[in-house]
Amino acid sequence: MLLQQIDWIILISFFAVSLAIGLYTAKKASKSQEEYFNAGGTMSWWLLGISMVATTFSTDTPNLVTDIVRKNGISGNWVWWSFLLTGMLTVFFFAKLWKRSGVLTDIEFYEMRYSGKIAAFLRGFRAIYLGVFFNVVIIASVSLAAIKIGGILLGISPLQTLLISGVVTVIYSSLGGLRGVVLTDFIQFGLSLGGAIAAAYIAVTHPAVGGMENLLANPEVSKRLNILPDFGNMELAVMVFFIPLFIQWWSVWYPGAEPGGGGYVVQRMLAAKNEKHAFSSVLLFNIVHYAIRPWPWIIVALCSIIVFPNLSDISAAFPNTASNIIQDDIAYPAMLSFLPVGLMGLVVTSLVAAYMSTLSTHLNWGASYVVNDFYKRFINPNSSQKTLVNVGRIATATIMLLGGLIALQLENALQSFSILLQIGAGTGLLYILRWYWWRINAASELTAMIVSFLVALYFSFVHKLYFDPLPTHIELVIGVAVTTFSWVLVTFISKPTDQQVLVNFLTITKVPGRGWAKVRALAKKDSGIEVDENLFGFQKAIFSFAIGVIAIYALLIGIGKIVLGEPNLGYALIFGSLLAFAVVYKLIDKE
Fold first, then answer.
1. Beta-bridge partner residues of 256
2. Which of 100, 205, 480, 591 has the most crowded CB, counting CB atoms within 10 A?
3. Would you call 586 exposed, middle or buried from its count of C-beta atoms within 10 A (0-12, 13-18, 19+)?
4. CA distance linking residue 509 with residue 525, whole number of Å
5. pLDDT digits over 493-545, tens only?
């Protein structure tokens, strides 16, 4: 066990603060399900934006980045950097629409947008599918990272790790609801970012590394430094760059990067004070998440290549760690073992904070589906607010228990990332178009969800029994093609959504663009309701989206160039990024 007394004091103090916040917000959270799951819709953009970042600042993310860098170099991160396009689409096309909808959860959207028994079935089915199944997989993934950190740095078993951190998280998140989660996230983000920077500094000063200059000059490291992939190795470039940037971002549903918005991102937007706060919160999230946060992890990952060039080196250094979890992703916690007393406590606490912030969000988000979109909608529509909050607390504990059990079966972070991508492959385009094209219906969504899941099961369990395994990116493309073809076909052959439901949806959300031209005409003819197409606003959103993407990618690469020893280019890119942000600010300030 590497932690000393002062380290334990820091860690236990953090646990105490988290529990105190849960107790502080418990009374307000207990008033109603709106307070418990939505913080009463009164939260500020900066708190919500930081909360989104803290949620994605999970223990499995530095492990995932380390896994990627050790295998495919820095450029391998385009498999998730590509999701910036998805995030910026949410900023400029969906944030205000979600807030305007007035729903409590994004699952409630289904009966607002669609009609008939199939819409009700979809709402209930997806509440369990996402609220329980998907959240269990996410919780298992981040818990796996916590297990590896606990084994390397604390010398405790996987079960002990889950019991200690999981119980504390369940207590404060179930007590304080979303408000408690968001307030705790703010503290956790500061700890997580500070810990990541401290870990990077210690990694660079490790005797085997010998500083940044020696790190960058090392032949095993230097071949992994390109931010863009080597297009001479087209197979790798297709896998980590072309497919993510041209197919994956719009076609795949992934938690935190849902095309059209979804999950805890929508939950935060719905908790915002107004549309402008909803918009600003997601913009802040994308800036910090993609441009600022990755580089400390990348530095540690590069240093690990020198200190632990092979997995056998990690096994030799930590002989008590279970052999089945010794993978490339474990190099990150292995590098943290060199931290000095005191700083070790801070960094371990930052990782625990990152784990708990992700955990608490997914627990509260998953429970909101179970309560609002399954229990209240189908089991007990007349339940009291007290009952709904209590059911939410029970659901929180149950989801954590299931996630912990699955975590004990996983081996590495990249494995779970690939599984999640495959399960959501082909559904993304539908989640974009359902807002801007009236013809999408409940049958379209149900088809996309079922087909993508069946394709994922096929590749995970059936294909390898009869054929040679395919690369994961090829499986992804096949999944996208099969799923997209299936739901598009069903869209055209199935019955459209009821006309009055479409008119009501359009009247409430005021969706711009020509995809609703037919419904606009019907609304004006039958009900005398006139909704402006707002084509200028739609065109401005397209332009703002393009400039915003350029701004954040320029900031990401600019920071990277400074870190990797090319400061002049780095500062030029950052300056260009600031100019692009100024253009975006001018555009949105006129609204």
1. none
2. 480
3. exposed
4. 19
5. 999 999 999 999 999 999 998 899 989 988 887 777 777 888 778 888 999 99
